Predict the structure.
Amino acid sequence: MSAPTQRPKVTEREARQVAEAAREQDWRKPSFAKELFLGRFRLDLIHPHPLPSEEDVRRGEAFLAKLRDFCETEIDGRRIEREARIPDEVVAGLKALGALGMKIDTKYGGLGLTQVYYNRALALVGSASPAIGALLSAHQSIGVPQPLKIFGTQEQRDAFLPRLARTDISAFLLTEPDVGSDPARLATTAVPDGDDYVVDGVKLWTTNGVVADLLVVMARVPKSEGHRGGITAFVVEADSPGITVEHRNAFMGLRGLENGVTRFHGVRVPAENRIGPEGAGLKIALTTLNTGRLSLPAMCVGAGKWSLKIAREWAAVREQWGKPVARHEAVGTKISFIAATTFALEAIVDLSSQMADEDRNDIRIEAALAKLYGSEMGCLIADELVQIRGGRGYETADSLAARGERAVPAEQLLRDLRINRIFEGSTEIMHLLIAREAVDAHLAVAGDIIDPEKSLGDKARAGARAGGFYARWLPKLVAGQGQVPGAYREFGALATHLRYVERTSRKLARSTFYAMSRWQGRMELKQAFLGRIVDIGAELFAMSAACVRAEHLRSTGEHGKEAHALADAFCRQSRLRVEELFGRLWDNTDDLDRKVVDGVLAGRFTWLEAGVVDASDDGPWIADTTPGAPTKENVHRRIP
């Protein structure tokens, strides 16, 4: 008894309320990044650098050795790129190696690796084939294992985790053709019917969906007697009657990605397959992503390492005007950027991952910053590598090999990394998500003041709370350790950068307070401003992580001098970006840009579009996804 799917009609305020309800409301553990945005540089939360146990290191390194051998002998990245498919025998080999169960506990047949070694494994396998990295990441970071680990019942874990550890591939299904980052409009329904739910709807961009055995599906349960309703998460068998993979999507990069469009028509899902209570689906998704997002920057670290290797080797042998191109300053600055930024990215990912393993800190902001910063800087690194390689950077690896040169897939790297700025929260959405968490303390005490729907009594009480909070908080933003010449002296030459971070975090907090005072309730509309605030915080987090990692390496005698040099270079480059961002907080073209956008949408500039041919075909911008029986062949396939 499936019900027709109708797109929910929601206002902007209702959509925000749905997103807010799904957000974790409490801060039960300390957060380095949250404190940073509040102007409090809590170095004690990240220094000394947290470390894995000896047993975790032993098991992790043993698996990495096996995985490296597999990558070098069994994975042909160029074949995957040419054929746009990961060979079945490669997936079978990964299953036999235990790669599907890297994050699954050993009692369920998994490897039980820490987040640190899971991310290092993804960086390694992603360097051999980004498509394989995406398959393993989607399966374990956001697929069925992670939500079951956090929210599943013991019965669900016993039933599904052994399969997921060795044989079954999973996928995560949230996005719909007309629903991206606005889940309040989710249209897929799960209608209660006895001991089952009946699911109807269409899901888009289901990574692994073409080959998946188990699915995490987000669907809306209608509110009814005995059912609180709301967006709810389910584990669904991919071969259930009524499920059709209607199309395997093709992209500019990640050509081996098994990503599709999945239709549900009267699909019966047992009630015991529901994860958590009704209405908890978005909270489950967001909580899963807290650590799941770390997989993307981990693979960006791998991309940075490979880019540095290629840039070093190529720029040392390619000569122009009598000397290697690396010795020309225009190229040398690019190599320096790649080296320093790769060091910082690895510092961010390792630090955030170890913090996730220890579970002493709340890392929701750290993980989001890692994803945001890693995806943005990873793309810049790949772009610089292409530029260093010149015409050869734009040429495909197969073409290079065909004419007798080393097959270097630089252009493929650029295409493959580009999706990371969109995957698992676009850069623009990440800016808003992080900004919301960064101003949480302000909204907690002053939110009612700027809420137009609150009563005068509520506003008065909020005013009293805010007065007390700011009376204690604002004086602390005036002075700090960053103004003490000898502060952080144990970091040697890097101490000057940590003093800068401390001073600048207070400046960032003051800027945020000033903006809230100036714009009040309209601040949520100042997305460009909020984006710059977040980008400054990301740079400060990166500098902190780089310095802490460099000092850790120095104290252990492992490339300490070289690490300090890289951290110093990165911090100096980062500080220039921070100062530019601060300048653009108040001196920008945001208001003018809005006027231009109004003119574009009003059609006042259509004359500028003359003189070209539109190469796109006719058709709707968004495909018709009316629920109903499938009309296309099912392209779902199982990998033996």
